[in-house]
Amino acid sequence: MRRIAILNQKGGVGKTTTSVNLGAALARTGRRVSLLDLDPQAHATTHLGIEPNGQAPSIYDCLVDNKALSLARRQAEENLWVVPSDIDLAAAEVELAGVVGREVILRDLLATDDSFDFVLMDCAPSLGVLTLNALCAADEVFIPLQPHFLALHGLSKLLETTAVVAKRINPKLRVTAVVFCLCDTHTRLAQEVERDIESFLANSRGANVPWSQAIVFKSRIRRNIKLAEAPSFGKSIYSYAPTCNGAEDYLALAMEVLGETPPTVFSAKVSVETAMPATVS
Question: How many domains does the chain have?
Fold first, then answer.
């Protein structure tokens, strides 16, 4: 089971869109995917058509009252489940403040919940207790970035946090990759930012830091209006517009995450099954 925290403390960079649609793409290849919504805004929950009304069990109950994740988990699509969030989760930061071992609650919950190929954690745009729980439970971190200059600000703080967690609590934690989202690859600024990130990561090779082996995924998530529309319909991009550019881009990203080669040509005639591996681990 791969446990991946999808994290950036800057909002509006495609973090939730990536969490939901990468999870949906992986699910379409036959992998069993559990998405944990660790953001009190509950955007991933809403994106998958679940109303965060505070009545049904949520990730809040799991973290604060030690309920099993299975009690809150709900199936959103075939092979894709979500442990939803709601506004109550905002209180968890305060309620867990005095709890001994508060940073490893999620790790302990996942220790008895291993029936999935992937666990994706959609983190809040902050570096508080909820995000700390994700970093302590995860083996990998994916960082979605918009290729703008301001996206570079705060990246050092994010990497510094992963280094502290890896040193003190979770030595297995590694920053695996950067995902460029909302891309317009024809602009000079985007190309310069991408080169800067790739150069920084290349210079970190061999260093004793969690991002020493991190890469920039070759798959770029292009700007696509269908990706912006899908949450208002409570659907992933594969249920809403499976042949659009956004669906193609996230399928390519999923195949890259799996270490497999995506189709070289995408069109309305290319189904997700085209990229499905012969066997499912």
Answer: 1
What's the distance, CA 50 to chain centroid? 18
pLDDT in tens, 39-69: 999 999 999 999 988 788 999 999 999 999 9
Spatial separation of the C-alpha atoms in residues 47 and 61, rounded to whole Å: 21
C-alpha to C-alpha distance for 213 and 180, rounded to whole angstroms: 17
Q: Hey, what amino acid is at 252?
A: A
Residue 261: DSSP 8-state = P
- Angstrom distance (rounded) from CA 19 to CA 109: 20
Contact 132, 9 (CB under 8 A): no
Tokens representing 144? 């979605």
Contact 199, 164 (CB under 8 A): no
Look at residue 256 and tell me if it is in a domain.
yes
- CATH number reported for the structural domain that contains residue 208 in this entry: 3.40.50.300
User: Could you give the CA distance from residue 63 to residue 90 in angstroms, rounded to a whole number?
Assistant: 12
pTM for the structure as a whole: 0.90
Pairing of strands 74-77, 215-216: unpaired
* Residue 234 covered by a domain: yes
Q: Between the CA of residue 219 and those of 22, 141, 250, what are the distances in Å?
A: 12, 17, 8
Domain containing residue 185: 2-268
Which residues have C-beta within 8 Å of that of residue 160, sequence separation ≥ 6? none
Q: Please give the Cα distance from 140 to 137 (Å, whole number).
A: 9
Residue 218, phi then psi, degrees to nearest 5: -65, -30
Determine the Cα–Cα distance for residues 50 and 170; give it in Å rounded to an integer. Answer: 32
pLDDT in tens, 193-245: 888 899 999 999 989 999 999 999 999 999 999 999 999 999 999 999 999 99
